[in-house]
Automatic annotation (TrEMBL):
UniProt domain Alpha-L-rhamnosidase six-hairpin glycosidase: residue ranges: 433-779
Catalyzed reaction equations: Hydrolysis of terminal non-reducing alpha-L-rhamnose residues in alpha-L-rhamnosides
Any GO molecular function: alpha-L-rhamnosidase activity
Organism: Paenibacillus silvestris
GO biological process, one term: carbohydrate metabolic process
EC number: 3.2.1.40
Keyword entries, A-Z: Hydrolase
InterPro entries: 6-hairpin_glycosidase_sf, 6hp_glycosidase-like_sf, Alpha_rhamnosid, Bac_rhamnosid6H, Bac_rhamnosid_C, Bac_rhamnosid_N, Ig-like_fold, Rhamnosid_concanavalin
Residue ranges annotated for the Alpha-L-rhamnosidase concanavalin-like domain, each copy included: 328-428
Keyword Hydrolase: yes
Domain Alpha-L-rhamnosidase C-terminal: 782-853
Name assigned to this protein: alpha-L-rhamnosidase
Pfam families in UniProt: Bac_rhamnosid, Bac_rhamnosid6H, Bac_rhamnosid_C, Bac_rhamnosid_N, Ig_Rha78A_N
SUPFAM superfamilies membership: Six-hairpin glycosidases
């Protein structure tokens, strides 16, 4: 027997060798490969050691799991001795397949622990006093020169800021952009850890840090500045270990030096100004001869929040775009088209005389006269100003700001620029792209691309609503409706785990989850007021994110810990809704309704009661997963009572639902609120409404997420495809027909007859209406996670061919490996062909539309095949069903039977 399994990737807490974590029982993951069909794991053994050498010798001095009978290869919690501050843990794993054959040991993986207690921190928070009479403060530059006399064995640095830090060591940048990320700084701040062994030298070394105001002290949303504090501070502690067993620390304290530098100001929302003549050249390297006066830094006495290990993935430059065209304007400026609405900034290349200023201005759209459309920015200023130093070719990119734009205007550019003058740096949280989707319809492909660009543009530390105007807030409603789509597109495990902390940090004592997380100031400053019907902390479809997002992470990644960690908060939310309802109906009060729907106002009490039911039903399922039987029964009973109350209050004897919008029907259908009889009526009313509107949708942010799923599940697939490919207003394709490269905030952000919508709320990069991406993966391609074996341990493959599509190819990188589906429908012969790949150590059930007549080219009839890894299950008239083990399979079916029955 040959060895069938190979271990190809080991992760800790979803990450590749993470540093500075503070999880007491980190979860370990590995991915398996095999060329055998149905390959699966039957046993595993994990070894954890305090050094790589010991691990290599087979000494597991921290933990040896022993040989465990288990098919689990994800989320195995470390169960060894208590983990200690600043220690590194090395681990490896081996597995046995179902025939008892052992794999080789995996390669060594590791994680390191951060500073686990306050007492471990010797560093002080340092900053620089504000300049008097200056409105926007110059970012402080901080530096520390230190000598090392011996060769370094290993060194780590732990850093964070109240504000943002840009850290350098011996002239090179270390770490992420926009670190430490946005949290509710009154509650917590994330600490990043970096290994710096190779960057240190014997002799003089220099740490340099530039601090930005960021979310802490700069402009946040439309709430102005100083939401959390007055000015930024750095906290840094490095530990250097020598070969002789000794070690030393370098910490931020009053022995550092502070000054202002070349950045005149840098604000998330207001842009940056930079005077290159003021660069303190060499300030972050050894041998620096100070030309400016460095001062003693300002030391802040304390910080009452938590210092926690970073959960979110780092923000980085993820792509660089070249402009596609540019032109000179009458005013002598140059307007570039990046060809894509993107988020990040522009890198500028320029030569000229010292003191000359170039302004780089950004906008998403152009006015009819060809000038930049700036009206939708509100008070945001998407401009960076660069003053030349006048030496050779100069390159500039801003530091602590980002912009949402497709068009770039260079104002005051000296000489003749060309296409190489600028480059667009695409900046977002670094999440692996996990989903790919391609069809024979280029507009559908563009829609998928636009959805993905919306995610790139808005997943920056937190999921923001938009990236351009003075808002950019973590709106919970937007995040929940898009969460599943987001999880197909990219690995959002860490991103949303961190965001759940933000949601929890904002939860009200009453149990209410908020509209926005992290708190951007209005809760703390009591800017919300229930009587004002605005910014209340418990809006339907917004607060429910606190339940929907953990459930999504469970379904997509099999993460039960996120359910455990958030269980109390979720129960508090549902109990809060229950205690604030009347006979299980949520009152009509502050909420946004089906936000930005088109001529279809969904009554708020209907929407709020529907979401109350949905959160309760999810909570019942979650209680079941966690083995909380009593709670499960309690919430199932509550759900039944809410659904009954919903029917009594809102469903007429003719089955019409109060409001009669598309949204009330799809929410009722998808949240299981109706009787079977009412379901049938609801789908009829829904499709009639769509037809009466000329085959158009009318749903807003919330309804849109359930629209195509509801139609598909209730045998109106043709209507789902009609809406998907509809090109008349309002529709997804309408925006694409008019050049959209991202998802717009509003269906009518721009229309042929009205032009731009009111500029006070008109973003062209808002992902909410892009929640149709979920339908494209789950239904159109048919890659569905089975909640009963979550994280794609068992996948349900159920493609839904229809509309004008005859070819769909999609793949999704699950924790087990890549699931692939490629289907093709040949209309003339009504032959449906599908190729699927199921990853090792996982299984699938496939529903092939029509009557399958060949598998892997072997012809047969149901029950008569003997195909390895593939077992026929009971089929229906419409679909043939099989259970699959890992491997690649090809099915061919005859679709005539189905078409006849639709
Ligand atoms: C807008 C935001 C956001 C939405 C709220 C209700 O200001 O853009 O997307 O969730 O309103």
């Amino acid at each position: 027997m040959t060895v069938s399994l190979t271990i190809v990737q080991c992760l800790t807490e979803y990450a590749n060798n993470p540093l500075g974590i503070d999880v007491s029982r980190p979860r370990l993951f590995w991915r398996l490969e095999s060329s055998d069909r149905s390959a699966a794991q039957a046993f595993y053994q994990i070894m954890v050691a305090s050094s790589q050498e010991l691990l290599e010798q087979g000494v597991a001095d921290r933990w040896d799991s022993g040989r465990v009978a288990s098919d689990q290869s994800i989320h195995i919690a470390y169960a060894g001795e208590t983990l200690r501050s600043e220690q590194t843990y090395y681990w490896k794993v081996r597995v046995w397949d179902t025939h008892g054959e052992a794999s080789a040991w995996s390669q060594t993986a590791y994680w390191s622990m951060g500073l686990l207690s306050r007492a471990d921190w010797k560093a002080k928070w340092i900053g620089r006093k504000s300049e008097k009479g200056v409105d926007m403060q110059p970012p402080p530059y901080l530096r520390k020169s230190f000598q090392l006399t011996k060769a370094v064995k290993r060194a780590f640095v732990y850093a964070t800021a109240l504000g943002l830090y840009d850290l350098r060591l011996n002239g090179s940048r270390i770490g992420a952009l926009f670190a430490p990320g946005w949290t509710d700084y009154e509650t917590r701040v994330q600490v990043q850890a970096y290994e710096i062994t190779d960057q240190l030298t014997v002799g003089e070394n220099v740490f340099g840090a530039i601090l930005g105001d960021g979310w802490y002290a700069g402009t946040v949303g439309f709430l102005g500045e100083n939401v959390y504090g007055e000015r930024p501070f750095l906290l840094l502690q490095a530990r250097v270990e020598y070969f002789d067993g000794t070690s030393e620390r370098i910490v931020s304290d009053s022995s550092w030096q502070a000054a202002k530098g070349a950045i005149l100001y840098s604000d998330l929302i207001k842009g940056e100004a930079y005077d290159a003549r003021l660069e303190p050249t060499g300030w972050d390297q050894s041998g620096y001869q100070a030309e400016v006066a460095w001062e003693v830094p300002d030391v802040r006495t304390g910080y009452n929040g938590l210092l926690v290990g970073t959960v979110e993935p780092p923000v980085r430059i993820m792509q660089v775009l070249k402009p596609v065209s540019f032109r000179r304007t009458e005013a002598g400026t140059f307007i570039y088209d990046m060809g894509q609405n993107m988020v990040g900034w522009t890198e500028l290349t320029v030569s000229g005389v010292a003191g000359h200023q170039v302004t780089v201005s950004h906008a998403e759209m152009l006015n009819p006269d060809g000038s930049l459309y700036l009206d939708n920015l509100r008070v945001a200023v998407q401009q960076d100003h660069y003053v030349l130093k006048g030496i050779g070719e100069e390159r500039y990119e801003p530091h602590f700001t980002f912009h949402g734009f497709r068009y770039v205007e260079l104002i005051g550019y000296p000489g003749e620029p060309d296409l190489a003058t600028i480059a667009g740096k695409v900046v977002h949280s670094d999440m692996a792209e996990t989903g790919r989707l391609e069809t024979n319809d280029s507009m559908v492909n563009r829609l998928h691309a636009n959805i993905t660009w919306g995610q790139r543009g808005n997943f920056l530390s937190v999921p923001t609503d938009c990236p351009q105007r003075d808002e950019r807030l973590g709106w919970t409603g937007d995040a929940q409706i898009f969460a599943r789509t987001a999880a197909y597109n990219m690995n959002v495990s860490r991103f949303f785990s961190k965001y759940m902390q933000d949601i929890l940090d904002c939860q009200q004592p009453s149990g209410a989850f908020t509209d926005v997380a992290p708190d951007a100031g209005w809760i703390r400053h009591k800017m919300w007021n229930a009587n004002l019907n605005w910014f209340a902390p418990d809006n339907a479809g917004w607060g429910d994110a606190g339940v929907i997002i953990p459930w999504t992470l469970y379904v997509m990644y099999g993460d039960t810990r996120i359910l455990e960690t958030n269980y109390k908060a979720m129960a508090d939310w549902v109990n809060y809704l229950r205690d604030n309802s009347e006979d299980y109906v949520r009152p009509d009060y502050a909420n946004y309704g089906d936000w930005l729907s088109i001529d279809a106002d969904t009554p708020k009490e209907v929407l709020a009661t529907a979401y109350f039911a949905y959160s309760t039903q999810l909570l019942a399922k979650i209680a079941g997963v966690l083995g909380r039987k009593d709670d499960q029964i309690q919430y199932e009973t509550l759900f039944a009572a809410i659904a009954q109350a919903f029917r009594d209050a809102f469903v007429g004897s003719d089955g019409r639902i109060h409001g009669e919008t598309q949204a009330v029907y799809v929410l009722s259908l998808q949240f299981n609120l109706l009787t079977d009889e009412q379901n049938k009526l609801a789908i009829e009313y829904l499709t009639t409404d769509i037809r009466t509107r000329g085959d158009r949708l009318s749903t807003g942010f919330l309804g849109v997420g359930y629209l195509l799923p509801a139609l598909t599940e209730h045998r109106k697939l043709d209507v789902a495809y009609t809406l998907l490919t509809q090109e008349e207003f309002p529709s997804w394709m309408y925006s694409i027909k008019h050049g959209a490269t991202t998802i717009w905030e509003r269906w009518d952000g721009w229309t042929e007859h009205k032009g731009f919508q009111t500029p006070s709320m008109n973003s062209f990069n808002h992902y909410s209406l892009g929640s149709v991406g979920e339908w494209m993966f789950r239904y159109m391609a048919g890659i569905e996670a089975d909640p009963a074996a979550p994280g794609f341990k068992h996948t349900i493959i159920r493609p839904r061919p229809g509309g004008s599509l005859d070819r769909v190819k999609a793949s999704y990188d699950s924790l087990y490996g890549t699931i692939e589906v490629a289907w093709h429908l040949s209309a003339s012969s009504s032959v449906f062909r599908i190729e699927v790949t199921i990853p090792v150590n996982s299984t699938a059930t496939i529903y092939v539309p029509g009557r399958v007549y060949a598998i892997d080219g072997v012809k047969g009839t149901s029950g008569s095949w003997e195909i390895e890894g593939c077992q026929p299950l009971e089929s229906t008239e419409d679909e043939s069903c099989f259970k699959l083990g890992a491997g690649r399979y090809i099915f061919e079916s005859d679709l005539l039977a189905v078409q006849a029955s639709v």
